[in-house]
Amino acid sequence: MQGQVIQLLSGYYDIAVGDQVIRTRAAGNLRQKKVSPIAGDFVEFTPAPDNGELGYLTRVLPRRNALVRPPVANVDQAMVITAAAEPTFATNLLDRFLVYLAGQRIAGVITVTKTDLLDDTAFARLQAVMNGYERIGYQVHLPRQPFGAADLEALRSVLNGRLTIFTGQTGAGKSTLLNHLVPDLSLATAAISKSLNRGKHTTRKTTLYRAYGGLVADTPGFSSLELLDVETDALRDRFPEFVAVAGDCKFRGCQHLQEPHCAVKAAVAAGQIMQSRYDNYCQFHAELAARKPVYDKKKR
Length: 300
Ligand SMILES: Nc1nc2c(ncn2[C@@H]2O[C@H](COP(=O)(O)OP(=O)(O)OP(=O)(O)O)[C@@H](O)[C@H]2O)c(=O)[nH]1
Ligand SMILES: [Zn+2]
Description:
Elements: E1 2-9, E2 12-17, E3 20-26, H1 28-32, E4 42-46, E5 55-60, E6 66-67, E7 72-73, E8 77-83, H2 91-104, E9 107-113, H3 120-136, E10 139-141, H4 149-159, E11 163-168, H5 174-181, H6 183-196, E12 208-211, E13 214-217, H7 240-246, H8 263-269, H9 275-290, H10 292-299
Helix pairs in contact: 2-9, 5-6
This protein binds guanosine-5'-triphosphate and zinc ion.
């Protein structure tokens, strides 16, 4: 049988199959292969025999992606929680998150919080910026807070059929939004923490919760330190709107920096590519170039 690991507890693997959750243990040969299943893994398992023993997880299927912190595999999308204010909105940090997600092949769903802190002028300005991200192809949610029922409905429908992580800058409002969207989640998390306190040797890893037809990871994502995890020359591939026009650059391998007849720079000049995206690209490129020796050492 096949299913998806939603929780790891002291050597047990809880596997979701349809509406059921089946507890298994790792088969002996799986341990020899040194494959450690993590939450989100699609796996094969032998169901429990009738004698009350547990079934065995026998094989981890190939992963589409795997995050280290939190340890989750096969993530479909990340809600990139972005504050409209407090902390001040900056495309620089948003673009860093999007660069990271593109590398992991995780769709970014930009979700703006704290819009109640903006006056109408500032809100309209932010809307214009977000229209730009929509044109690139990102899904954007920019509700005028406080949330209306329709806003919550739209956000919840994003979860359907997907494995979603919540990420964003510290203080952006991840926990607040998550609790709002999935009220059961905080309850479930509290219940698990309480039951685990009884067993001393219990280690708790990431748990996935079912919510609105999908799975949600309970731990928020990575730190901004590890967001630029890309080789300098490959950074351009993480800007989809650059890739879309780069075929028209004069030079193959154009980095869209000093090269003449660059289609990306032309698109920026024509207002088709956001100036802020291009500026952030140049800044990230410079940052990566400056730390290149470290990367080279790591590769060898
Ligand atoms: N005005 C306003 N404040 C908000 C909103 N959402 C969250 N906050 C406040 O912003 C602060 C941070 O919110 P959290 O939900 O803890 O943010 P977080 O992203 O989970 O923060 P970390 O746990 O540090 O990663 C809290 O004081 C919240 O009350 C919002 O929509 N409007
Ligand atoms: Zn170019």
